[in-house]
């Protein structure tokens, strides 16, 4: 039976189901209109329920950030899973077990050491299987991956093609700077740059008789209304399913599309300090964003004159941006909702997500933890 | 059977058992020499095993930061538990259940609203029980609690004394600024200030015929070699059991006493950027400290020329402080240990602690999560 949001113990992470469904549907439509495959990333939520919504019930074609996620989804009927993380030797054993279980499991190779490791382990592959590889390119922004303009990427592709036990699934490029450009025309220009560099790498491989498509990730770039994005074969966004204050600032979403918040209660008044205290400390809200925006790193919903100015383990300090804060307007016990700067970082702090429709709690979701 | 630390999947939170035992023993000795009661705080670790070490096997007399902790310890044979958090109405029901179960359960009252709530609920108390109250004083640093020099604290104490269903266990004071003073003589002076303010509140209550002792918390002040600390009746430190880089900077411990680290592996090289990448992102290491010390917010153990300059969800960027970083010195797969700025914040990110003696993993501990 549904209960009221206000009956929940605070702090807690609350997720608006309707907005999640809308965000999932909008990204699916974007992909459809660009004629590309959506491979949603599960790193933001790490729950079966959201992955089912993201895949529109198919449970096929997802990207994960940890082996713990890959195993959790594989154990629960998901398939066609990409471990979207540089492959290293310590991960091989569990990858092989995943290949036994799944029809399709892909790994990401970001450097020659990764390729060496896979090659060394071909004897242990399940019978009839090959390593399915996404080769990661760094478009010039210093993320993981082969430099887009290096000869290394061509050598790696040739090496994969020559091996009977490796398959080049695609190239993969992450627009690493998409989180630092707040101006729309600059963002479009940067993404066009990424596309032209990807196209260059793709052409150089084609000249070697290696045909391959290119996938990309990141919510800001996948949210761009850019016809040129049709160049890509796959989108791997993750954060879009919840969004957050940062994505709103980046122009990826409207504020009304943000599906996740931290619910907190006022626990004390400090009129001398012009502050109220709430039960939201750094175990409930990530410090993410505090370095970039110390005065404005999250939003107190519906009260634009309030700001969170500090947190200890279980206590948050809220002050007024302008003028005095009249504590009488916030009696002890008052519920406030905080929109996090980074939804992924804040979700990662919570063992349970409280899923609501309007002010009613419908259910809870339990994310998988660890690595 | 014990396994090698190096066989663990990374990132992971590793705890040095010997150091934990030493840190526990040292704080017990300090309390013994000052003739005061140790009520260790469990917020840092949230595990049965560490609480057992902290209480020297007695499982009696602990402080907790959340109801989830209180219930977990109560369900596992611990007793005499203080919920060291401002009591609010939404917590009452679970507190009453804890009182049913425990011989001794104490709540912390930090304002009049807390006292109103307890008074309103006296009819629901288990038969023969009273609310056992620690009255929190704010020594002037803007933490939760009644201002030490206010008449309110006297009124609250009188109100408790008059009630048949409330018992004033003690006053409680937290030296809120102990985390911002890095100079020893200033720290001593600040603590003497806290003591004189506590003594003033205590004397004013005595004048009203209310005798009560004073407890205090915080690892920096409990670690001070200050004879005046004998004024207190109880110490409630928490962080001391693991310590961290911040406590080392504050002078609370030697670097060799820090018992917790994050183990990580090198996953990629970025020679153009003078960087190596490791599998330690913000899901494994808290951003805590990055605002205060952007260039030096954690330590890469044993390699003083390295520093962590940024993190995404699952990746950390490590650069050289001076000169070029020769990636060949850090082959992919190399294990590094990171000493966190704030051990409590980093521990809170991990579902499992890997407990080691030297380089051997002895066991795992599972902290309780949530609120």
UniProtKB/TrEMBL annotation, chains A, B:
Keywords for this protein: Lyase
Ranges where the D-serine dehydratase-like domain occurs: 259-357
User: Which is a Pfam family this sequence falls into?
Assistant: Ala_racemase_N
Q: Which InterPro entries match?
A: Ala_racemase_N, D-amino_acid_metab_enzyme, D-ser_dehydrat-like_dom, D-ser_dehydrat-like_sf, PLP-binding_barrel
Extract the PANTHER family matched here.
D-SERINE DEHYDRATASE (PTHR28004:SF2), ZGC:162816-RELATED (PTHR28004)
Identify this protein by name. Answer: D-threo-3-hydroxyaspartate dehydratase
User: What family does the Swiss-Prot or TrEMBL record give for this protein?
Assistant: Belongs to the DSD1 family.
Q: Does the keyword Lyase apply?
A: yes
């Amino acid at each position: 039976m549904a209960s009221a949001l206000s009956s929940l113990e605070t702090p807690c992470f609350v997720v608006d189901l309707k907005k999640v469904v809308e965000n999932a549907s909008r990204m699916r439509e974007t992909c459809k209109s660009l004629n590309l495959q959506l491979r949603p990333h599960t790193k933001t939520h790490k729950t079966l329920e959201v992955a089912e919504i993201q895949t529109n019930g198919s449970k096929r074609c997802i990207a994960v950030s940890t082996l713990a996620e890959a195993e959790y989804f594989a154990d629960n009927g998901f398939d066609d899973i990409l471990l979207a993380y540089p492959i290293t030797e310590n991960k091989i054993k569990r990858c092989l077990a995943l290949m036994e279980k799944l029809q399709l499991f892909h790994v990401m190779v970001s450097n020659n050491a990764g390729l060496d490791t896979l090659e060394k382990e071909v004897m242990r592959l399940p019978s009839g299987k090959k390593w399915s590889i996404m080769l990661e390119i760094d478009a010039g922004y210093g993320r993981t991956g082969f430099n887009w303009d290096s000869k290394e990427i061509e050598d790696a592709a040739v090496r994969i093609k020559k091996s009977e036990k490796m398959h080049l699934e695609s190239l993969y490029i992450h627009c690493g700077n998409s989180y630092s450009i707040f101006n729309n025309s600059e963002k479009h220009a940067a993404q066009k740059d990424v596309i032209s560099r990807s196209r260059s790498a793709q052409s150089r491989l084609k000249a070697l008789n290696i045909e391959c498509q290119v996938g990309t990730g990141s919510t800001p770039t996948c949210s761009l209304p850019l016809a040129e994005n049709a160049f890509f074969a796959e989108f791997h966004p993750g954060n879009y399913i919840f969004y957050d204050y940062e994505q709103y600032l980046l122009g990826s979403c409207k504020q009304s599309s943000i599906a996740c918040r931290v619910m907190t209660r006022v626990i004390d008044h400090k009129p001398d300090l012009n502050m109220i205290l709430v039960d939201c400390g750094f175990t409930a809200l990530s410090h993410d964003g505090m370095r970039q925006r110390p005065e404005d790193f999250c939003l107190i919903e519906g009260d634009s004159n309030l700001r969170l100015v500090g947190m200890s383990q279980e206590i948050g300090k809220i002050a007024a941006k302008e003028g005095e804060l009249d504590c009488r307007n916030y009696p002890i016990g008052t519920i406030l909702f905080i929109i996090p700067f980074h939804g992924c970082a804040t979700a990662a702090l919570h063992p349970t997500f409280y899923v609501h429709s309007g002010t009613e709690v419908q259910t809870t979701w339990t994310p998988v933890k660890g690595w």
